[in-house]
Amino acid sequence: MPRLFHAPLFIIAMLVSFGAAAQDDCSNRGDLDPMYCDADGDLVADTPTDPAKLKTPNTLVFTYTPVEDPAVYEKVFKPFTDHLSQCTGKRVVFYQVQSNAAEIEAMRSGRLHVGGFSTGPTAFAVNIAGAVPFAVKGYENEFQGYNLIVIVKKDSPFQKLPDLKGKKLAHTSPSSNSGHMAPMALFPDEGLKPGEDYEIVFSGKHDQSVMGVNSGDYDAAAVASDVFHRMSVRGQIDENDFRIIYRSAKFPTSSFAYAHDLEPGFRDKMLKCFYDYRFPPEMQKAFDGADRFFPINYKDDWAIVRQVAESGGESFNRAGYEKESRREEEARKKKAGKN
Fold first, then answer.
1. Are 132 and 43 a contacting pair, CB within 8 Å?
2. What domains sit in the chain, N to C, each tagged with a CATH number?
3. Helix (H) or strand (E) segment spanning residue 265
4. Which of 14, 122, 261, 300 is most buried by a 10 A CB count?
């Protein structure tokens, strides 16, 4: 299996140019890259009409968003990937990715067929990689959601967001909804302006933000509530050592999305494998009681995420993606330089 990597910008430019020529007859594209089309207006890439462009992989490559250590999730998803292999009749490989950009580029290049994308990067995956979200972890009657929370040490003096002016507050990565875009959009109304009232420090991942607050590297951190809770359940932290000083409205948690060019017959069989599956106890424990893949619609269920990004001056198009990828890479290099 080839290593997942960040595609050089000149290669991306070539792909965009080729896609534009191939899709000149597209009646509607919206924010999708030129290599995709959205004729039906559902905001996701249409299935190719040319049978030669459809894929039925012999080995199905699956991954999950790198919000925490990817090795943790390979183990957590093992019961499901075993089921998916038996259900589809295909070999299933869980491939560990180390960044949101690597995951998006892997699907764009055809090396990733289905996977979980974090809430914010889901929209980039849709527009840049032709990802089609179809499910969120959930329960019988609703999908699972999370809140943006801001955590501080319990013995700290901070009680509300304005108390963090001049302090060190960790965001996760530029493309993260709860870890960056939501704070950029929501904090100013609470009396705290990111980048002005405090310096934004990118930790790289939610668990690293939490552990950074725990160790005293950061005064506070903006993280997803579900990641924070899972870390407590696994014994990585004690929730009682922290105080939550801010909690947002509910967002959908990570989406599961397939590559737009999967052959429809195979795709529908695979989707049934997802929807019919019920999480065993170890998966339910890992995912806050969720017991299934709950069907969702990207256009409707991700509207709040797109609205937060737009209100914060962000965009999920190619220009926005390249900007966020540069920020993510700069943050990664800066963090590597300190270690």
1. no
2. 16-143+253-301 (3.40.190.10), 146-251 (3.40.190.10)
3. helix 264-276
4. 122
